[in-house]
Specification:
Strand content: under 5%
Structural class: mainly alpha
Distance between the termini: 58 Å
Order of helices and strands: HHHHHHHHHHHH
Number of helices: 12
Shape: elongated
Helix content: 55-70%
Largest sheet: none
Radius of gyration: 26 Å
């Protein structure tokens, strides 16, 4: 990878050659020739390129040996980017190797980008060949013959994408390990507060502020310029999903398969207002980080839980349930709706049980 390139130059080189090869094959106007060449192209993609992508992902993957992911998360410490630290570690390892010719001179982010871009390029190559074949071969039998060999390129594209997705999962899991201690602070957040406490203390706002500052400093700082747009949005979404799931588990553990003794958070009207603000702030933070994608659906269940605990009476749910839901798609089951309403300490259980959902 030269300079600040997000991918290895090998990726562009490979697809440039394959594109030229495909265009030359099309120029012969022979379905037999085109099928044979496309088969060879796919062989290059599915064996040589896929092997290269997987090997580079393995060689730059230092997560297994990384021991201090949870140790760098210290209040008041200087921001530490896990990816940057891993890149430095990888560089030190490769610098000690004798076989520098086969060692990548880039970090894990470039290996991830190689996978994503290769998958995208493979689909583009298939589309170009398909368009050319449709213009060249009028005989339906010829078009039928070229279809299966082009489908193999799509399968290889999916394999290339899967390799990168596995790598993104590893990166997201490493970030989650770093954030776990900070997330544990949500257990101390109170949503059943009296007026005096509401005016003087705000544990939930402090938690959200601290948590998002840790996400920014220890996970996302310096990462956006290293990843492709698709990979950046993918890692932001993974972090958002982890955040939403952990908070939901703490608020409504029964909905996440916890034991019956886990009651979750207790709410009153004032606390419910805070939850609505907190969910909006979390959703807005991750949404603003995305370039093209969206994460608002990730927080849909939390938003609906917030909506329920903010109701004045349990029967108010009828205003937004069933035929009255309008354009809203309910992500909570009727059982989960009752459990969410049950989080309000001032709602009578009999009124909740009487609901016909």
């Amino acid at each position: 990878a030269g300079g600040a390139s997000k991918t290895s130059t090998a990726i562009d080189d490979v697809f440039f050659v394959l594109q030229k090869t495909a265009r030359r094959a099309v120029s012969y106007a022979s379905v037999d020739t085109l099928c044979a060449i496309v088969n060879h192209i796919n062989l290059c993609l599915s064996s040589d390129l896929l092997d290269f992508v997987n090997r580079r992902l393995r060689e730059t993957d230092k997560f297994a040996g990384y021991q201090s992911a949870t140790d760098v998360l210290r209040l008041g410490s200087a921001p530490v980017s896990l990816l940057s630290d891993l890149a430095s570690k990888a560089g030190a390892d490769y610098g000690a190797q004798d076989d520098k010719a086969t060692s990548p001179d880039y970090d894990f982010s470039v290996a991830l980008n190689n996978s994503q871009v290769s998958s995208e390029y493979a689909i583009r190559l298939r589309s170009e060949i398909e368009r050319s074949a449709a213009e060249l071969f009028a005989n339906p039998r010829d078009r039928t013959r070229i279809g299966p060999v082009l489908a193999q390129i799509s399968e290889t594209s999916r394999a290339l994408a899967t390799a990168g997705e596995d790598g993104l999962d590893k990166l997201a899991n490493a970030f989650a390990d770093m954030l776990r201690r900070c997330m544990d602070g949500f257990g101390r957040v109170l949503y059943n507060v009296d007026e005096a406490t509401y005016d003087t203390e705000d544990t939930s706002e402090e938690f959200v502020r601290l948590f998002l500052s840790e996400v920014e400093a220890h996970c996302l700082a310096g990462l956006e310029e290293k990843l492709t747009e698709a990979n950046w949005d993918a890692i932001v979404r993974r972090l958002a999903e982890w955040t939403a799931q952990r908070i939901e588990n703490a608020i409504l553990p029964l909905a996440a398969g916890a034991t019956a003794t886990d009651k979750g958070k207790s709410f009153n009207a004032l606390g419910a207002l805070r939850l609505d603000r907190d969910v909006r702030n979390l959703s807005a933070f991750f949404s603003e980080k995305c370039r093209k994608g969206t994460v608002r659906d990730v927080f849909a269940r939390l938003s609906q839980i917030s909506m329920l605990v903010n109701m004045e009476q349990p029967h108010d749910v009828y205003d937004i349930w069933g035929a009255n839901a309008g354009g809203m798609t309910w992500r909570l089951t009727p059982i989960e709706v009752r459990r969410a309403l049950g989080l309000r300490a001032d709602f009578k259980s009999s009124a909740i049980k009487a609901l016909k959902l």
